[in-house]
Amino acid sequence: MTKYATVLGISDEGAPVDRKSGFFTAIRKDKKASFGLIMLSVFVFFALFASWVSPHDPTAMDFDMMLPPSWEFPLGTDDLGRDLLSRIIHGTQISLFVGVTTVVIALVLGLIMGVAAGYFGGWIDMVIMRYIDLLWAFPNFIIAVYLVAVFGAGLLNVIVAISLAFLDDFARIARSMVLIIKEEQYISAARVSGASDFRIMWRHILPNAAAPIIVQATVCVSYAILGEATLSFLGLGVESETPTWGLILADGRSFISRAWWLGIFPGVAIMLTVLSINFLGDGLRDYLDVREVKDV
Amino acid sequence: MYQYLIRRTFGALVVMFAVATLVFIMLRLVPGDPIAAMLYDVGDPAAIEEIRRNLGLDRPIYVQYGIWLGNALQGDFGNSIYGSRVEVSRLLLEALPRTLSIASISFVVAIVIAIPAGLIAATRRNTGADYAVTLIAFIGLSMPDFWLAILLIIVFAANLHWLPAIGYVPLSEGFWPWFSHLILPSIAVGTAFSAIVARMIRSSMLEVLNMDYMRVARSKGLSEMTLVWSHAFPNALIPVVTVIGIAFALLMSGAVVVENVFAIKGLGRLLIQGILNRDYPVVQGAILVVSAIFVFSNLLVDVLYSFIDPRIRYGS
Amino acid sequence: MTNKTLDELSLAQRAELEKELGEAYDFDPKDPMFGLSKDELSGPDMSRRAVLRLMAAGGTLTAMNMLPLAAGFGDVQAASGGVLTCGWSGVGQIVTLDPARIDQVVQFQITSNVLSGLMHINPDLVGEGDLTESWEVNGDGTEYLFTLRKGVTFHNGDKFDADDVLFTYNRSKDSTKSIHSRVLNNVNSVEKVNDLQVRFKLAKPQASFLTKTLERSSGRAMTIVSRNALEKMGTAQFGLTPVGTGPFKIVEHQLGQGVVMEKFENYYDPSRPKLDKVIIKPISDPEPLAAAMESGDIQLIGGNPLAPELIDRFTANPDMVVNEVTGPGFQSIWINPWHEHMKVADFNKPVSELMKEKGFMVRLAFAKAMDRERYLKLAQFGHGTPAFGTINPAMGFYYDKGLEKTSTQTFDVKEAQRLMAEAGYPGGKGFPELRLATTPSGRRESTVVADILRKNLGVKIQVEAKEWSVNVEEFDSMRWDLRRSGSGGDFDPDDAIVDWMQTESKFNGRKRDKSKMPFGYFSDREADDLISQQSTEADPVKRKALVQKANKITSDKVASIFLFHPADILVYHKRVNFPKQSRIPGLVDLDRVTMS
Fold first, then answer.
1. Do A133 and B15 touch (CB under 8 A)?
2. From CA C238, how far away is CA C257, in angstroms rounded?
3. For the whole prediction, is pTM greater than 0.80?
4. Chain centroid, CA A171 distance in Å
């Protein structure tokens, strides 16, 4: 997890730089990022249309146990006679859902906290920063493990646990950004002209801070997906009919010596998803020309 | 500078105890009665109550906290609720070397791979070597560590029989037994970290290599070798120092999962088992130790940084 | 490779078995000496016939006990020596080994190697003294005079004498110190006659006194502990490294790391044990356990029942021996009778009456829809036998083989669907989603259960795996819809029906809100009475009738959906010679084991 603040290259006029038009061309040129985009689209497609795309019902134990990959079952069947391909396709739903929602929650909350701390300063800053430091005392993942183990498994708890664990990254970035940008000319100019605090934050600070936050968000999505898989693997994850990749791996662990496909394909699915998000994120970072500066 | 350090140290201690308190409260408020579970087969409510009384679990929560805190400051973390009531400090002392062994070997393995890799990628930018390193780094970052652990076991232990599949052997029983049991877990844990460091070094080096003072040095006629090693490299290392701080976070999280897969009784395993068994004293102690290590290693990084960064060094 | 022991008997051997069994039960139940003479009941050893008689009278005789030694595995006796490393399955730490506190199979298996009892029933079913040289019974079977073995020492060098027997007795009788005090309820007193003689005075004649209460492996209450060691070490340390007189002594035990035992040089029988050292490692997860066994890190698996997915894996491995026998236990799906849609407020009616109630119809529908064969195939890989009651096949004499056909729970999908429809939920429509509570290790098999019920009845069941301590609390408070659990180590009917099927049973919703729920998961007055009666019934034939009647009631009235009786599996490397005499289901006695 990279906990360092990033700074957007700010143009001379002081206004936010518009680069929307060049985005897709830039991505197309970057081989890794295009691969990532395509791969991710495939997974998103699977997630959205899982029931149509899957050859079989992922929970149906109708087939012979532990069949190797074949035409009928391209990825084989598992120890309870369920089609692995269908399970993996359905697995995209939870993985992506968890990945996205945790980041959105962490981002929104973190932004609010970070911007408030940076902008208002004073005791608000201190209180918020102490809280962030508290979260810092723990590796993200251990926080998530602890919360889920204590409050139980289940989709909601997993999402809350992972969001809380990643909250501090966004807060720190937001706060650093605000502190840097606060010094910039056009803020003072805006204040002189009578704009309210909130307006200043909304129209001036946030757009400039957007870029590093977007990049950080992609990093967090990939970690959230890995985190959910790990929690599921440890038995602390989502409990539902829909299989998740971590759960498929955990279930299949005992049978890997006889059924190698149970140990390979779910892991490959996780890896490809995270890889494509990482590629995309990297491409985004290059595009937005985000450079690294140590924490302010 | 000293003022800064003192402030940071104090802050660290405050953070640690806040964490412990939070954990204490949350654990008690959560469902699951450890004593009843332990004596399930006995089924005698009187016996259960008596054991609960013996362990002081019937006192109000703030009293329990006070007692625990007082003891903790003297190094006594109480006894495990589960079973033979062994001292928690003993459990921690047994678990700590295991996790530290994994973390340190992972760290070494990661750095040993990452630095050359990052250097190669930076100095041969946009060539095949660069692409290869970058791609491998990405893949390493994207693999779930438990999956990598399972794959390693399948290949190296179950099939090739080169290395043992599970367990831990203390250093006192010989270097190779100790080390051989730690190789696979360390690779599983260290890979992601290695990838991050390699990429950091690469980008850091690239930045430094492009800077003005490098051009000046080049124009003076210094060889590329000298440039890389005595000028670029040390400067490129500076941001990497920050990474060491988060190294611990990564390695600890990784250790938790890997201890599960390799059945090693380290801190991570102790923590999870303690939580699952509602073994309060064990969880308290484990979390205190974990956060202590984390907080103080961060402190160490800050100290190192304060020597490098002139702003802090001379006070701001 | 696998060897199923009972199947190996030849016809002649089977006939011999039947004959002995018949003889064993041939006595007048009112006879305090169980049809045996004073000489036959007294030491220095008791004949096989006498032991069989006592076991029959005590209700602990099963065909399993009587297997001849000839049909063999592990007959090869290799030289002594060697180190055996064992993996203890499904357990993270062996919490305590103090006999006064142990209550899990994983612990018994270790202590029976470290501690001795006064008696030992050897593999030929000849009763021998373990720590006694001989004994005498008085005319009405209420007094036993034991002459203790000379020259026995504890692991720490102390000499064993009558004071240790007294100390152990007093400690075990104290319910605040020992959880097994109930076992000694029939003993009025123990007196020291001299340094090497003690006299036990019983309240009533007790058939199982010599064969169970004082026996080395099964009698927890009278396994002799060293009073010196207890005083010196304190209870906590003693629980980790108990000091006894057994063939092995514990040299190291780190919680969570396992136990190391070494040959006790001064064991009173110089020919035992054969091994030099035994290392026991707890390995809770199945995958590391399998990896350890396959790589040769461990050579034998003991502890909790093996995860079923590993059984086939080991069977397919030519280097390993998998020994499977019927296990003593049962597993069920419990149905909460207070759930609105499955409500049965009063079981005290004949089944025909109950059948008119919607709640009972649903209950019975579930039981009839439970395809046990499919469950066994998917969830247990074919290991185990379908269950229709708590009385398991390992209880031999008491087991009702025919219950499978006569119970109301017999598998019948059409009938089950008809019942659901009649209760108002045709095809499962309108029936709420239920939660099936289980532990994380039971999640896989519970998924199979949920799937079977979904397919056959159309009801939706969500599997909820919660940690053991949470699970237990919810079960006791009756906060669940369905629950998957059962019992193991049941060698005597008392272990099963008393603990589970009575209104006052210790697992029957102890912590429930009594104002809302007059009983826990099941309550039937007739069953209660029958169960209490059988507990004190000395005549085994009468007892069998009582037990089977009670068992049928619990089955017909669906006290729970009885699922299966697990198999007892022992796995070891073919290098290990595990003599059949040591093969007691549930135990791992290592004193005669050798390695080649």
1. yes
2. 17
3. no
4. 15
